[in-house]
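Troubleshooting entry. Yesterday's outputs looked truncated, so today I'm pasting the complete records for two proteins to confirm everything comes through intact. If either block looks cut off, that's the bug. Protein one:
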Amino acid sequence: MKLWGCKIFTGIAGSTIDFGEVEFADGKITKVSALHKDAIVPEFSKEVIDARGKFVMPGMIDCECHLVQDAGPSAFTRIWNGTLTESMFNTMRSAERYLRRGFTTVRDCGDKQYETVFLRDKINEKKARGPRIICCGMFIRVTKGHATGWEVDGPYEARKAAREDLSHKIDWVKIVVESSSVIKTQHEAGALQMLPDEIEAICTVAHNYGKQVAAHVHTERGIVSALTCGVRTIEHCTALTPIVVNMLKEKDAYGITTFTPYARMAVDTSGITSPGMHEYCDRVMETKSRYFADAIKNGANLAFGTDAGAPLTYHGDSGYELACIMKYGMIDAEHALEFVTTKAARALQLDDSLGELQPGYVADIKVINGDPTKDIYVCDDVAYVFKEGELVCVDNQLLDVNNRPLWDREILTEVTKPIPEKA
């Protein structure tokens, strides 16, 4: 299979090919090369696709999402109080939408009752359509703490919960170190919910199983505690202070961006967001924006994540999060695209085979109508998606496992937009 005449982002800023071709076979990329401007146009077919005027890049990777949630009002509470049937349907619908938008890998950072594990296996068996799912299973939290899932008090219960969680064949462990409302002022760190001995106990068990740990945490104090105890990724990572930046580099750990829910809820006028949440999201965005550009300048390990499933944060949308990364990080589009490709692959320790377009890598490829280096929002206008070399989406239309058009389960473009399109 060949994509001919396209602009190619390989996954590395500065190495973009303005006019080139990508070849792949048996699920792997075999060739990525530039073409002469006067190159002879080949005869196009099912195996040689005319990609002139299109932008080709690695399949996108979202490091932080919740497939079980639906991005509606009170998404978390409503779904967790709903039926397992409803949560399974939401999980399948969210996964399909991700693939249609060119995300070929996602990490689900907390489900209701291991729905994502079931769907991951069905996708791997080619009995369902969806991205490659990295499953965290159920949250581990302290008693009455933020979120839901396994409840622990003390290191002994923490170890037991980690073993219970891992028995469900999850890929990562997700813990809740702090509440989502711990940032009370721009200077106040907030109280830890999960103590260091509990975090360390969970990390020890996970590492013994060959797994890594992700932590929900915002403040410097919480981030330092999590990284010291062995956590690999910091979800939200709001307080990117110099201390945090240095620890991320020292520990080879990653902060996950998740601008979208906070940026959107901070300006929401639809009534979905309560006044208290408006105020909270304003504080989060003030803190994120204060530190983010300096963190990038100083080489912080950071990767793309949306927290999709949270209110107003739709599965598969990439343009808004990338626009925020560009705006608050003061970087161009190519460097922002690294966050959702190479950097995301490194964060999830998948960079030996995913996140780049180069020979030998898995042929996860997104083909975009337009050029996101000129308008980042065209990332959501998808021409083709290939997963492991197989064509799975054409013009935002997902194909089923027999390459037939799959029934549209939802309209990709929302009928009403309660927030501005641009970040």
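Protein two, checking that the full record survives here as well:
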Amino acid sequence: MVPIIFTSIYDDEYGGDLNGDATSTVPAPGDWYGVWISGNSNDSVFDYTVFRYGGAGNYEKANLYVENTSVNISNSVFEYSKVYGLSLTNSDSQVSGNVFRYNNTAGELSASGLRIFNSSSTSSPTIQNNTFQENRTGIALQGGTPNISQNTFTSNLSYPIKAQSSFGTFSENSGSGNGIDAILLQSAITKTNGTTTLRANFLPYMFSGELRIMASSTLVVEPEVVVKSSGGILRVYGNLNLNGQNPEDIVFTSINDDSVGGDTNNDGICRPDNASSTAQCPSPGDWSGISLLPEAEMRAMGFAVKYAGGTGARGASEAGLTIQESKVNLENALFDTNTKYGVKIINATTTIKNSEFRNHTQPGNAAALAYYNSPINLENVTFSGNNLAIYADSKSIVHTATDLMFLNNAATTSPEDLLNP
């Protein structure tokens, strides 16, 4: 099908040399403003349409700008915009089978193939089966509950997807060769009285800074999800439900951990035994961990927390998982190579079953499990290769401790008679 073209007057590739200047002028991003579909326009459809070299102005900044209405967009191309290839504001548009490319003007740090902005959390556009190539960012999201699935992202300069306080769903999205091959989550990941679900993609999720699960809300994480971080902390004010079966089903780890989710930062595969390798390898404290605030709840099965415990984030507690005045049940979990603690418990009731703590050795007073003024139930838990397996203060008690295994720890418990008072 022959496409419909919207482009610059200087673009001789389509429609010929309209301004009769041969090659003395060439098209450039921002040569024109673009097409604007507003709330007074209904039932618009764009199919087999090409948009090029728009994005001028101080407001719309897009080849195609859709605001307060919905449009069906398919089989189209959005390229060479000054800022956004397509911009959706408070829109439930259906966007499928399109190509977004070359929206990466130098100096325009917010440039992206697709921008979705929602001042209302009720907007739910569907973005499916599109290709995003060589944009600054593939998709930039702020707010709303978009459904983003089966899209492909290649060679975008920063991230395939940036989601700020966006509560939508991502599934089966894939990509390679981007600046960072991950879906970046920022600010709040849930909204009050709502539930957000993280589903499996061929890309890991990532966060830096503070990511929040709001009070009276729930984050559900499904199997095959990998979440990586660089210096970030996940703060839980509401509910965190991890729905795996085995420790490898859901993994929270460092951005430098290439063993799951691939080489996310594209610096090469970590090879500790290769002195000439320039790739960064993961280290204890690469990110700050998961922190449950008072009255939060966590029901978690089949997950791992690795390389956390850093103190870079405000209020970080030097642990892979910190539990404060919360109710927590952990099963089939792995805590591996965190600093200073694998799990730190403060004034909370915790049950841990069928789990393993290993390689907690930094700093010198590190412990796999530490709890303060807290009762704890332990069943079928293995501690291996730790500096100290379990630390408890004088106000803490072990309600039950059955089938515990200690392997190659420098010390087992402090106090020494903790399990045999």
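Both blocks look complete. Sanity check on protein two: Residues 99 and 131 are 5 Å apart (CA to CA).
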